[in-house]
Every structure is written in structure tokens, then in C-alpha cells.
Amino acid sequence: MKKNPILLLFVALTFSLTCCQNKSANNDNNQIDGHPAWIMQGNIYEVNVRQYTPEGTFNAFAKHLDRLKAMGVQTIWFMPINPISKLDRKGTLGSYYAVSDYTAINPEFGTMDDFKKLVQTIHDKGMKVLIDWVPNHTGADHRWITQHPDFFVKDSSGKPAVAFDWADTRQLNYKNPVLQDSMVRAMKYWIEDANIDGFRCDVAWNVPAGFWRKSIPELKKMKNIFMLAEGDSTYLPKSGFDAVYPWHMFKMMEKVAKGEKSALALDSINNENEILYPKNTIQMYFTSNHDENSWNHADFGTFPGIIHAPFAVFTQTMKNSVPLIYSGQEEPLLRPLEFFEKDPITFKNFQREKFYKTLLDLRTRNEALAANASFKKIHLGDDKAIYAYVREKGNKKVLVILNFSASEQAVSIKDVTLTGKVHNVFKENEETLSSKEWKMNPWGYAIYEY
Q1: β-bridge pairing 429-433 and 420-424
Q2: What average pLDDT does this structure show over 53-80?
Q3: For 261-284, what is the mean pLDDT?
Q4: Which of 18, 207, 228, 363 is 20 to 30 Å from 323 at the Cα level?
Q5: Secondary-structure class of domain 35-372 per CATH
Q6: Distance CA 200, CA 214 (A)
Q7: CB–CB of 133/202 below 8 Å?
């Protein structure tokens, strides 16, 4: 029988495509140190849908995807996409975190079909999707309040209790096993129906460890998802979360930026983390997020002007980390966004876009910046000002030098293993590092690849 060359070519191409698809799927299922392999050299970009565009919709945001992909963004975290309660609503539009229905879409943003299409588009571009989840409390008129009143903690009058001092919310009762099962089912819905890749869990520190120990393994059986806890309680990584917030480090970064503490103070937090957390705990480093921007004016207020750059480099290159960029930091956004009203970001200049692209691309291509790559602090000058370290994994090595001071600093490399030909990441050229002393500008920074 004569063989048809066109048919043979078609079969070969089909086999090749299938192999590539299977390899991609297998990579998505791989884990490193108990975490999804895809996050280890990844990054997170937080999207405030309401404020991202004048329209404030999923479809309008989608127009930014190619730009974000080109910038190096790998994982997109959407602030809560659920409907917002109207009872006791704050401001005109209310808080995203006063959810009225866990399995529905905020009509401000579009439809469920719009969101599913957006997730598929993001996946088609090779990126991942996290959604913000609010398990500690609901909005004041969540349907469970009438359908399942026993799902809520009661106040002295027998009514659903307000969570903390957030008058637009009601505290959930995790002593109720039916509530726990209902919450897990709601989370599973988004994995099954929308194919998301993980959750950022709001106020995770106030939800019992028993719930997380039960629910996270169930969710991870469905898909190799990434679980991020808002909180730094040591029980969170022990309960199954992949990553936590580095609040102690962030607060120390603020003090260093103000000149209240020297760069040496950062080592005290590193040492503390080594004691407190399990070895493989990931922390999500940042200079801003939605809370810090709206309430504490970060990063433009906490790391103003040129002070921002070395701290941003720090968040992108530290050990055990996955870095975060908040909506508009690439512009940069130099004001607090309204939380309960419409207040769109104006994207126009993208002055920091190349800066962030350099960092994101470096992390993606160089395994020395993986979350589990080694970290070694080194002495290059005045340790109260110069913070330098080497990240290394396999045959890859990166040297980071940061001047956390408002004065010019002398830098000298004595370790011969760090001298020689290197690639200057920000200058984008090849250099030869020697032991000869040189000066680093106030709030300066440099990264070298070996």
C-alpha cells in the first residue's frame, strides 16, 4: 500500500502537538516543595476591576492583557468579583469584600460568560488566574442570612454579628459544619465552572485552621491550584496555604525607608521567619496592594520618589518570595484609589513599565530567583546602608546590591567568586566586576547575572 506523504505529515504534526499539550498539562500539574511548579518563578499582578478602566468591566480590562503579558505578568489576581451587598453599603458602590453571593458575578463588571471568556483568554496567553475569596464574613444581605441563619455568629440581640468593626459585613460561624461544607462547595464552583488557578483568601487568619486543613486538600485534588493567605499567622502555611503575607518585613521596610531603622534590621526579620515558618513557606512581597494604597498611601507615600526602586527590587528578588505588583504601579499610580466610589486609574505614561519588565523577565528566565533558590547575605560595604545578597540555583547565580540610604555608599567586592564577567541586568550590558571600590548612588540598586 502506497503511503500518502500529506497524511503522514498530518499525523506527525498531530502527534507533536498532542505531546506539547500533554507536556504543558503535566507541567501545570507538577509541584515543587509542595507548591504548584508554575508559581516558583512566577509573579502576581493585582487587578482592581472597578478602577482599572473608565468602564470598570472585564471586557474593558481584557484590552490590557497583551500589554501586561509583554510586561512579564504571569498570574493575575482579581479583587472580589462577586455581587456586593446593598444593606449597610459603604459609599455609593460598596466594598468588594461585602459579598452577597459567592457563586455570582458583580453586574458592574459584566456577566459570568464575560468572566469565563476572560479566564480563557488569560490562559490562552499563558497566564494564570487567582480570584479574591472572602471566607471570614459575608455582606449584610447575603442570601445565607435568611436561608441559613445558623451560618452566622449572633450578637447579644440574636442578630448576625458584625465582623470586627466592618458595619457592612456579618461574621460567619465556622463551628457549623454545614457552613464549612457550603463554603467549600462555593470555592469548588469557581474551579469547575470558571477554571481558575487559585484563591487569595481575605482575612484568612481569622478562619479556623481546621477548615483550611480540610478544604485546601479537597480543592487541590481538583486542580494544582495556588493558595494565598492574607495574613502572616504561622498556622496558615501549616494548614495548606502555599503563601502568606510578609507583614513583619513590610513594616520593617517602611521603617528603613523613613530612616528609622538601618538595613541591618531586615536581617532580623529574615532570622525571625526562619524560626517561625515551615522551611518551604512562600511569602508574597510587595511595595503596595489595594489596602496599602487606599488606606496607607503605599507605595507613593511609604516609598516616595527614588526610594521606591531599591525596595521594589528587594520584593522581586528576595528568598522564599513571589512578588506582587498592584494595579497602576507601572504608571506609576501616585494617589490613593477610592474604595467605595468610582475612581479610575489613568494609564498614560507607563514610566515604570520597563523597570518592572526587567525584573519580571529576569525572574522568569533565571532559576536563581525561584522561590526555593538559595540566599546568601554578603558584606560589600557599610551594612547599615548596603544590603547585598546572592541568589543561586543549579548553575545560575544572581548578585543583588541595594543602597537603603539617602547617601552615596562605597561598594567593594572581596569575594573572588563574585568577580569576573557578568551581565548588568538594568544597564543591559556585559561588565567585569573587580575588587576595586566604586560608589553607589543614594537609594541605588544593581543586579548582576553570572
Answers
A1: antiparallel
A2: 98
A3: 96
A4: 207
A5: alpha beta
A6: 17
A7: yes
Pairing of strands 386-393, 374-378: antiparallel
Average pLDDT over residues 55-70: 98
Q: What is the CA 413 to chain-centroid distance, rounded?
A: 33
Task: List, as one string, the DSSP characters of 210-264.
Answer: HHHHHHHHHHHHHS--EEEESS--THHHHTT-SEE--HHHHHHHHHHHHTSS-TT
- Our measurement of the distance from residue 100's CA atom to the centroid of its chain's CA atoms, rounded to an integer in Å, reads 25
Q: Are 81 and 109 a contacting pair, CB within 8 Å?
A: yes
CA–chain centroid gap for 443, Å, is 25
DSSP state of 54: S
Domain boundaries, the chain: 35-372, 386-449
| Interstrand relation of 198-201 and 128-133 (parallel, antiparallel or unpaired) | parallel
In this structure, the strands spanning 374-378 and 75-78 are: unpaired
Instruction: Please check the confidence at residue 303 and state whether its pLDDT lies above 50.
Output: yes
How far lies 378's CA from each of 227, 316, 362, 386, in Å?
A: 33, 18, 21, 10
pTM, two decimals, is 0.93
Please, which residues bridge with residue 74 across strands? none
**Domain 386-449 class?**
mainly beta
DSSP H or E stretch at residue 298: none
Average pLDDT, the chain: 94
Contact between 253 and 311 under an 8 Å Cβ cutoff? The reply is: yes
Q: What pLDDT was estimated at residue 27?
A: 60
Residue that is written with C-alpha cell 524560626 in the block = 275
DSSP string, 169-223: EEEB-TT-HHHHHHHHHHHHHHHHHH---EEEETTGGGS-HHHHHHHHHHHHHHS
Location of C-alpha cell 453571593: 101
Selection from 442, 437, 434 nearest residue 416 by Cα: 434
